[in-house]
From TrEMBL:
<keyword id="KW-0378">Hydrolase</keyword>
<protein>
    <submittedName>
        <fullName>UDP-2,3-diacylglucosamine diphosphatase LpxI</fullName>
        <ecNumber>3.6.1.54</ecNumber>
    </submittedName>
</protein>
<dbReference type="InterPro" id="IPR043167">
    <property type="entry name" value="LpxI_C_sf"/>
</dbReference>
<feature type="domain" description="LpxI C-terminal">
    <location>
        <begin position="139"/>
        <end position="266"/>
    </location>
</feature>
<dbReference type="Pfam" id="PF17930">
    <property type="entry name" value="LpxI_N"/>
</dbReference>
<dbReference type="Pfam" id="PF06230">
    <property type="entry name" value="LpxI_C"/>
</dbReference>
<dbReference type="InterPro" id="IPR053174">
    <property type="entry name" value="LpxI"/>
</dbReference>
<dbReference type="InterPro" id="IPR041255">
    <property type="entry name" value="LpxI_N"/>
</dbReference>
<feature type="domain" description="LpxI N-terminal">
    <location>
        <begin position="4"/>
        <end position="132"/>
    </location>
</feature>
<dbReference type="InterPro" id="IPR010415">
    <property type="entry name" value="LpxI_C"/>
</dbReference>
<dbReference type="GO" id="GO:0016787">
    <property type="term" value="F:hydrolase activity"/>
</dbReference>
């Protein structure tokens, strides 16, 4: 079997993917996005760090190592075009991607995956490697959301869908029907920090995360983990609600234990049950 290539951003997900694949007996080759992933975490595998402007060189390097399948995993901040500083091959790749791809996170991912496919790579999702990464609909911890919390989840789903339709973010914080914060390029942790300073009296707010309308399920799915729970608690929230079968739950046992200890609910929800005009 040919090696699996991992294009690694930050966080623990690409590390877990590499470990799982290696444990299965398959070779792993890791291209680390410079400034996002930690190259030292992949010292056990053939690995190399590449900045965005050397993306074409990165793809050539993966091919040299016999890679045909790749996983895009980890957190990545979308670069500006001016920051890329591409080499000659990078200029050609940038022309294939096009400037329009840099208008949003999902648009650039779609363009990158199109280029990967044109170059003979097959992109697979991290969930195809790690079982149980996308929880099914269930209350995983904490008290059952009451009517106020359920209304906040419904409101949050509508807000997330509106944001996602213009390729902006995947999350928001709702408290008693008020939109305290929406996620843009700063990411979930920074959004939660901002929301904490805006909270109102009364029942705490809810973090809502869901997949963008039409988003590929192969990369950049909404993600929560122990740090998300910690930051939500610090922000005074009383629950985290995320789309079932579409959100990556990192360190499942630890995340659930943190939420349970803090007394906040952790709900993987079916969007059909929280869409405006339906009865949950």
């Amino acid at each position: 079997m040919t090696p699996l290539g991992i294009i690694a951003g930050g966080g623990g997900l690409p590390v877990r993917v590499a470990e799982a694949v290696a444990a299965s007996g398959r070779d792993v080759v890791v291209a680390v996005l410079d400034g996002h992933g930690d190259a030292s975490a992949y010292a056990a595998y053939p690995s190399r760090a590449f900045r965005w402007g050397l993306a074409a060189t990165m793809l050539a390097w993966l091919k040299e190592h016999g890679v045909h399948q790749v996983v895009l995993a980890g957190t990545v901040s979308r670069p500006s075009i001016l920051s890329l500083r591409p080499d000659a091959a990078g200029f050609k790749l940038l022309a294939r991607i096009g400037r329009a791809a840099f208008t949003g996170d999902d648009s650039i991912l779609r363009a990158v995956m199109k280029v990967l496919a044109e170059d003979g790579f097959e992109v697979i999702g991290a969930q195809q490697v790690l079982a149980g990464l996308l929880p099914a609909a269930a209350l995983l911890s904490g008290p059952e959301p009451d009517d106020v919390a359920r209304a906040d989840i419904q409101r949050g789903l509508a807000v997330c869908r509106a944001l996602g339709s213009v390729d902006v973010g995947q999350g928001c914080v709702i408290q008693q029907g008020l939109v305290l914060a929406v996620e843009a390029i700063e990411g979930t942790d920074a959004m939660l920090a901002r929301a904490g300073g805006l909270r109102r009296e009364g029942p705490g707010g809810v973090l809502v995360k869901c997949v963008k309308p039409g988003q590929s399920r192969l990369a950049d799915l909404p993600t929560i983990g122990p740090r998300t729970v910690d930051n939500a608690v610090t922000a005074g929230l009383r629950g985290l609600a995320f789309e079932a079968n579409g959100t990556i739950l990192l360190e499942r046992e630890t995340t659930i234990a943190r939420a349970t200890a803090a007394g906040v609910f952790l709900l993987a929800f079916d969007p059909e049950h929280f869409t405006e005009g339906t009865t949950a």
